[in-house]
Amino acid sequence: MQTDEELMAAYVAGDKSAFRALFERHAPALERVMQRDLAEREEARDLVQQTFLQLHRARLDFDPKQRLKPWLYTIALNLKREHFRKRRRRPERPDSDQADRQPTAPRGQEQTEARRSLGWALERIPPEQREVIELHWLAGLSFPELSESMGISVAAAKVRAHRGYLRLRELLGDGALGEAGRDAAKEAP
Amino acid sequence: MTRVNCEDVRDALRGGRPASDPELAAHAAGCAQCAALLADEAALGRSLATAGSDGEFDAALWGELERDLGAETGARAWLRSRPTPLRAGLAVGGVFAVTALGLRHLRPNWDGLSKAVLGAWLFAFTGVAALAVRVALPVLDASSARRRAALLAAFGLPVVYAALGELSFDATFVAAPFFASALSCFLYGTLLSTPLVALLWLLDRGSGSRSRLIAGAAACGLAANAALLLHCPATDPAHLLVGHGAIGFTLALVAWLFAR
Questions:
Q1: Are A25 and B47 in contact (CB under 8 A)?
Q2: CB A140, CB B49: distance < 8 Å
Q3: Per the CB < 8 Å rule, is A27 touching B10?
Q4: What is the pLDDT of residues B114-173, one digit of tens each?
Q5: Looking at the complex, does the CB of residue B184 fall below 8 Å from at least one CB of chain A?
Q6: Which of B75, B90, B115 is at the close of a domain?
Q7: CB within 10 Å: which end of chain B, N or C, has fewer?
């Protein structure tokens, strides 16, 4: 399988199908990241669309020696921040009784459930903590990289991550987390 | 034993390495956030490791994106997709071009001016304008500290010049009547800056970032101030502030309203 960087280099060289491959690979996860703070799915999809449009416009800035994913996620999160600034509101959090209840699923769906539980918990931690965790785990940015992209110190990024992890553990509870972690471990390569 | 860092712990969990691994445990002993990840047999770390690893292809969204990509044609699409060093270079060229427009009508006291002092002010205005261009046309947004510093310099310089204008040149020149002369300079400077406004619009990638737009406006204001430095003999602070400095602030206000 071609790496992200190889696909992007191919796109820059004129292979349009490479851009579709990048979209197929990253759009679903990006949409989940976007949707965590948005009530409307359409808004999240629009931001994903904008992210890839910005990536296309910036394609000649791509340096094949650098990793693509941190760049893509930094574009996406900048767009998300601008979106909230324009809407003059804080990220939304579902507040219905239903949304506040930790999701459960019948046995056999545990693997999906593990992700859903984590997504549920991520929605409930402060956005600045969630952003660090998402950039570190989903975009694969190192702490120095994400501190640069967020305009904060490495120490501040680590403190946010630490607080976020503690809050996630608190929300998921030892039992649920243990189950989620075991389910996730089953899928680990 | 090699020393591992937080990124190694993340990558190890993604790769399914056990939490009991001595290297990971040694790192976690001195790292609070990794200790939180690795507690309870790395339950949290493993959950995070697989987050976002699946998803379905959204054909409708790809269709919409394809339409957007298909519309990326013409001069603006070509210009804004140039590499950022080239875009920034073109914009800095625009700053110098606007400054050079000030040479068309030189200030009446040109011959008696200290060219070293004038050159120093020109260098300051164009240099800070280039800095503002860098913030306006980045590969990715600069850190907020760098952005703030550049914007502070861009909006502070005209104020500093208004305060020091009288001290910079041998003779104080008070433009009269005040409002007519200030308005005249304001309109002339704004007019001179319009080619740079247009160029920055052509080069902008449309991220809608407010700080980028405001930095672009500041660069245009500074270029206009540099041109007016060559053109206008006034040195009284009120004129410099209202007739010259206000250009950048007004353009920034328009950019701010546009970015809302």
A1: no
A2: no
A3: no
A4: 889 999 999 999 999 999 999 999 876 656 778 889 999 999 999 999 999 877 776 666
A5: no
A6: B75
A7: N
